[in-house]
Amino acid sequence: MSTLRDWFGKYIASLGDLRTPQFGQVLTWTLLAISFLLASLQFDVAVGQRQGPVTVFSWLPETWLGSDTTFLAFRVMLICGALLWLCQLALPWSCWLTTIGFTGLWSMHMENTTNGAHIFNMANQLLIVQSLWCTFFARDMRAAIAERRYFTTPLYPNWAFWLAIAYVGIFHTFAGLAKFAYSGTDWANGVSLQLWAYWDGRPGSWMREVMINHRPLVILMQWLTLIFETAGILGLFDRRVRVVVGFMLVSFYIGVVLTFDYGFHMNLLLTALLYFPFDYWLPKWSLAWQGKAPPKVVHSSDSIFGKFVAWLIARFDVTGRWQESLTQS
Amino acid sequence: MNSTEQPPTDAAKVHRTPSPTILIACILFIAANIVVPLTLGDVYPFTIAPMFEDAPRKYSNLRVLSPTGEVLADNSTRRIDPITKPDPFLLRRYYDGNPVGVGVGIEPPKTIDEFGQVPSIPEVREWIEQRLVEMPQYEFVDVQQQVVSAVDERRVGILEMRTFRVDRPGRGGP
């Protein structure tokens, strides 16, 4: 019991540990790419009886929910916020502008449809996590960017990383528990997944063909899905467990993406980013790159172009390699 | 490496104890993602991710043909029967892996389709007859019902094909 208490105490104590922000920044860039993807989508508005609440924006007047103006307003917020955030400008307001725009735009879609999919929930919640990080570190971030030391300054706290892992864990654990609660162990009967693949699988998909013709394999796939989805939250507690669970979840998403057109690519990407040790690899790769000779780019820091290059490097040089070149020139 | 160990960085290990505000924000975020889905259900962006929580063992596709053989309805896939198309016989499959109507703002219209269930011929006949009352241009329609399920120990496919004619109510005999 005391071992568990020690472990928990150590865990809590390390919430405030800071690392250089390579991982946090790559996660933000990934979410911003997803934001631009969402902003580019067109949505149909279904006609029918309204029901709800189904989104955090269901409280808006009914005339607003199906209005083109509301769609446009959230789309503009999303695009403007994401562009500003990408450029590390107006922090942390740009983060929240992006998050509200993202939430609002997909909410408007969900408010006006008879069919939905959980393809943006994860990205949306992780945007909130990243916005929290930026909110509480905005001053330090702005100072580090101004002094061109953003990627070499410990600015990414463990609490932000574990909050993201906790969300992805909860998301998958809920998905597993929902299957257990609704269908019990009969969920992994093999026929159900075969029927989904037969009915809604992409025509011509080799994975669909494999699934509809090999029930023993499909039963195994369903059991692994049930076990490892439910185990998702365990990734919070140990890095090795996280990698194993992550490998199985990513395999599950690859199977889904190869078979169906639901658009779970974002969940695949985000789960891989958070459950594989990219938080360990990215700073390591960055260090390795910093040891290499800087590229030969000569520019004057007084010219407009030079200032622009310096501005870009301060925000995007995740390796720190170009930064060295800039300061030496 | 356990989760409390740090990845290598070029900077010395730095620690900044999270403020109470940060801890409260984190706790609220986690609590909201647990409590909201469990109490209110799917309220975007909160969810319990109920997609494919059911365990169907069979379903059926319905196809309706006019007296001249023209296909009037076919609910077999969403590619053939997208939600933007008219659905005069109310056969559309709104099921998309998620529980029908959960997390969406527009209540799905009435339909005979229930993925996981196979309506009997009398049930389909009665359903189509009710729709034909409002379609005087058709004296009758032909209905094809595919029952999809396990066909042997390894495969799924079309287990049974039912074909039957449905006359418009009140129409005289042939």
Could you characterize what this model shows?
The complex is a heterodimer of chains A (329) and B (174). By secondary structure, chain A is an all-alpha fold. Chain A contains 15 helices and 2 strands. The radius of gyration of chain A is 23 Å and the shape is globular. Mean pLDDT of chain B is 89; it is low at 1-12. A 4-stranded antiparallel sheet of chain B has the order 3-2-4-5. Helix content of chain B is 19%, strand content 21%. Chain B is an alpha+beta fold. Chain B is built from 2 helices and 5 strands. Chain B has helices at residues 20-40, 121-132, and strands spanning 14-15, 58-65, 71-74, 140-150, 156-167. In chain B, 30% of the residues are buried. Classes of the chains: A mainly alpha (329), B alpha+beta (174). The interface between A and B is large, with 96 and 74 residues. Strand 1 of chain A pairs antiparallel with strand 1 of chain B.
Show the helix and strand layout:
The complex is a heterodimer of chains A (329) and B (174).
Chain A: H1 2-13, E1 17-19, H2 22-40, H3 62-65, H4 68-86, H5 93-111, H6 121-146, E2 156-157, H7 158-183, H8 191-200, H9 206-213, H10 215-230, H11 239-259, H12 265-275, H13 278-290, H14 304-316, H15 321-328
Helix pairs in contact in A: 2-4, 2-5, 2-6, 2-12, 4-5, 5-6, 6-7, 7-10, 8-9, 10-11, 11-12
Chain B: E1 14-15, H1 20-40, E2 58-65, E3 71-74, H2 121-132, E4 140-150, E5 156-167
Antiparallel strand pairs in B: 2-3, 2-4, 4-5
Radius of gyration of chain B: 26 Å
Sketch the topology of chain B as an H/E string, one letter per element: EHEEHEE
Number of helices in the DSSP assignment of chain B:
2
- How far apart the termini of chain B lie comes to 80 Å
